[in-house]
Structure formats: structure tokens, C-alpha cells
TrEMBL record, chain A:
It is found in: Cell membrane. The keyword Kinase does not apply. This is Threonine/serine exporter-like N-terminal domain-containing protein. It comes from Companilactobacillus kimchii. It is a multi-pass membrane protein.
TrEMBL record, chain B:
GO terms for cellular component: plasma membrane. Residues 7-134 form the Threonine/Serine exporter ThrE domain. The chain crosses the membrane at residues 28-48, 55-74, 80-97, 109-131. One of its GO terms (biological process) is succinate transport. It comes from the Bacteria. Belongs to the ThrE exporter (TC 2.A.79) family. The keyword NAD does not apply. The keyword Membrane applies. It is a multi-pass membrane protein. Keywords: Cell inner membrane, Cell membrane, Membrane, Transmembrane, Transmembrane helix. This is Threonine/Serine exporter ThrE domain-containing protein. InterPro entries: ThrE_2, ThrE_Dicarb/AminoAcid_Exp.
Length: 254, 151
């Protein structure tokens, strides 16, 4: 294998770590993958990842890079592709240069399901199995569409505003308003069931569980960051819904 | 009837969340099956135990075991299977409910909901740890066998 510049390796490792972390991989997986790549080029690398930054240090000399990370939504496709790339690299199917190009390509890749499929997915999640025998079938049918709307609102607001948590709050607000309107004009039978069901794509349940998994694996810092994030998202959704309720009360006088 | 419907909607829910989180297409179907099976386990466990801990723990163990198996068969990180399968079990609605009570000023209800959410989350997390401990012992021979077969 050709001689590699240490700085290049460290920079690439940091990039890999940052992409993985941003798109929803656990910290232990990030650290393992980065150190795995280091081992594949015979450069011992120490990586420490928290939810806010990735530190990559080469053991041979004092080359250290810090990568700031802003954890966003899940995009598991990127996690999977990086994982495949690192496996191929360690089996020497890829050269270092090819790996570097591929990682950069993955980082800026926006390949995704199209909007229709996304909406369909969000709608399917919005029919919560938890409520199958508690809510009426028609309410669940309605929550399919209410959930799609909430997801779309959250998505559009998220694209236009950099303020954290505003997207999910607006999603909660629109779901709440729509559910109460449906109740008031007599179509739906329970606003609360529709709201809970339609909120399923937005609520931070999976981050909450992941955070507890991290805490159990002794990645306490990342776990706490994720837990705080989940609770903040919960608070903003809750406030969104409550504001929606109040608005409807004021407007319709119900 | 309950089991059949639970299976269908557990499947749809997992596939749907898989699409929302942009799972690779080849992992959608396995994730859906695992989510459906886990939801059936949840329902059945709920018949015998009315608490929140046992049903969640058992379904998490099932997700963990099957997820690790699928990760080997489809060759993907195991987290890709955990995330969509979890969506129907996860305490998202409880967190939302508790935070809504918090916003409305019902502190007692909020604290109760938050503790319940933590309990559900912890039982899921512990279920995963148990499943991972088991699958780390069981699956390596299978992995080796598959690698030899592919060669």
C-alpha cells in the first residue's frame, strides 16, 4: 500500500465520524468505525465521539482534529453507505483515494425517497398500533391524513427556519388545530386520540430510547445530550399542541 | 383478530418509519417483519402482564435478536433495524402527554408521565442489551459460515 499522509487519514476519519453522527448512528459505532478505518491503513487512531463533536487523534504523532457536529434527523441510508464503504476499504477493495471521494459524495448526497413516498410513510406511522382498539377506526383513518399534514408542516418549517425545535412545535400546532376543527365540525369523535396518533412521526420516542441505550453503554455524555434533546422536543410539541387548543377555543369559542 | 390486525399495522408502521428515516430500500422489508413480530409479542405479553415493563422488555429482546440476525443477513448496521421497529413501542406519546401536562401546569401528571416514559425507555434499552449479549454469543458462527459460503 502506498504511503499515506497522516493528516489526510485523520481528516477523512473525522469526516466519516461526523457524517455518521449527524445521521443518527450511536457513538460507540462511530468510534468503532473510525478506529477500524485507522487500523486498515496501519495508523493507530483514537476517536472520541460525543453528540456535539468528534475528536480524532493519531497515536503516532500529535495530529488531532476536532469536528463539530450538529445532530439532525435520522438518515439511515448514509449510515449504511458509510458502513459499507468502511467494510470494503478494510477488505482492500477500495483505495484510500476512492474512499475519500466516496465519503464526500455520501456527505453531500441528498438521495432520498420522493415526497409522495415520504408522506405515505408518515401517514402509515400516524396510524399508531397502540391505539388500534382504543380509538375508533374512522379516527385512525383521519389521523392518517392529519399525520401527513403535521409531517409536511414540520418538514417545510424545518427547511425554512434554523431555530431548533420550531419545526416540531409547528407540526404539533397544525395537528392540534386540525384535530380540534375536525372534532368541532362533528367528523371526528376524539381529538386527543387523533392528536396522539398523528404525532407519532414527530415525537422523540426513538431518541429517548437511544439515549437510555447510550447511558447503559456508559456513553453518559451522549446519552444525557440525547435525553435533553428528546425532552426539549417533547416540550415544544406539547406547547405547540396546547397553543393550538387555545387558538381554536378563542376562534371558535368552544 | 387482534393479533392479525396488530401484525398488519405493526408492519405498516415500521415500514412507514423506515421511509421517514430514509432507510436503504433493501432493509425495509426485514425491518417491517421484525416490527410486526415485535408488536404481536407486545400484544400477547400484554394479555398476561398488565404493567408496562414486561411487554416492552420482551419485544425489545425479540427486536434485538432478530435485528442482529437481519443485520448479518442483509449486511447493514443493526441500528437500521432498531429504529423503525421501535417506533410503535417507543414512549413518544407518553413524553408528549407528560410535556403537555407540564405546559398546562399539571405538575404531578407531568412527573408521572415522565417517569413512565423513562420506565418504558429503560425496559426497551435493557431488552436490547440482553439481546445483544445473547446474539454476540450465538451469531458469530453463523457469520463465519456465511462468509465462507460467499467466498
Amino acid at each position: 500500500m502506498d504511503v499515506l499522509d497522516e493528516k489526510d487519514v485523520v481528516a477523512l476519519c473525522g469526516q466519516v465520524g461526523a457524517v455518521l453522527l449527524e445521521n443518527g448512528a450511536e457513538t460507540s459505532r462511530v468510534e468503532n468505525t473510525v478506529e477500524y478505518i485507522g487500523r486498515a491503513v496501519n495508523l493507530p487512531i483514537v476517536c472520541h465521539a460525543t453528540m456535539t463533536a468528534v475528536f480524532v487523534n493519531s497515536e503516532k504523532s500529535a495530529t488531532t482534529r476536532i469536528f463539530k457536529v450538529r445532530v439532525g434527523d435520522f438518515n439511515l441510508q448514509k449510515v449504511d453507505r458509510i458502513n459499507t464503504l468502511s467494510r470494503e476499504f478494510s477488505q482492500q477493495k477500495l483505495t484510500f483515494k476512492e474512499l475519500k471521494e466516496a465519503v464526500t459524495e455520501v456527505e453531500y448526497d441528498t438521495s432520498d425517497f420522493n415526497l409522495f413516498e415520504k408522506c405515505l410513510g408518515a401517514g402509515l406511522v400516524s396510524v399508531a398500533p397502540m391505539l388500534l382498539f382504543k380509538a375508533t377506526w374512522f379516527d385512525l383513518f383521519l389521523s392518517f391524513f392529519v399525520g401527513i399534514l403535521g409531517y409536511l408542516v414540520a418538514r417545510v418549517v424545518g427547511q425554512h427556519s434554523k431555530i431548533p425545535y420550531i419545526a416540531v412545535a409547528m407540526g404539533g400546532l397544525s395537528i392540534s388545530i386540525l384535530a380540534h376543527v375536525l372534532l368541532d365540525i362533528g367528523i371526528a369523535s376524539s381529538a386527543n386520540n387523533i392528536i396522539i396518533s398523528a404525532l407519532m412521526p414527530l415525537v422523540p420516542g426513538v431518541p429517548m430510547t437511544n439515549s437510555l441505550r447510550e447511558i447503559i453503554e456508559k456513553n453518559t455524555i451522549s446519552g444525557l445530550v440525547r435525553a435533553t434533546d428528546a425532552i426539549m422536543a417533547g416540550i415544544s410539541i406539547g406547547s405547540g399542541v396546547v397553543i393550538g387548543q387555545i387558538l381554536i377555543k378563542v376562534v371558535l369559542g368552544g | 383478530m387482534q393479533i392479525l390486525l396488530g401484525f398488519v399495522f405493526g408492519f405498516l408502521s415500521s415500514v412507514g418509519f423506515g421511509i421517514v428515516t430514509n432507510n436503504p430500500r433493501r432493509t425495509l422489508m426485514p425491518a417491517g417483519w421484525i416490527g410486526a413480530i415485535a408488536w404481536v409479542i407486545y400484544i400477547v405479553a400484554g394479555w398476561y402482564d398488565h404493567g408496562v415493563i414486561m411487554p416492552n422488555l420482551l419485544s425489545a429482546i425479540v427486536i434485538g435478536l432478530l435485528g442482529n440476525l437481519a443485520a448479518i443477513l442483509v449486511r447493514a448496521p443493526v441500528n437500521i433495524f432498531y429504529v423503525p421497529c421501535l417506533v410503535s413501542l417507543v414512549p413518544g406519546a407518553i413524553i408528549y402527554d407528560s410535556m403537555k401536562n407540564f405546559t398546562l401546569g399539571y405538575d404531578n401528571l407531568a412527573a408521572h408521565g415522565l417517569i413512565k416514559a423513562l420506565t418504558v425507555g429503560l425496559s426497551l434499552a435493557i431488552g436490547f442489551i440482553i439481546a445483544e449479549a445473547i446474539s454476540n454469543k450465538i451469531y458469530p458462527p453463523l457469520k463465519k459460515y456465511l462468509e465462507q459460503k460467499n467466498r
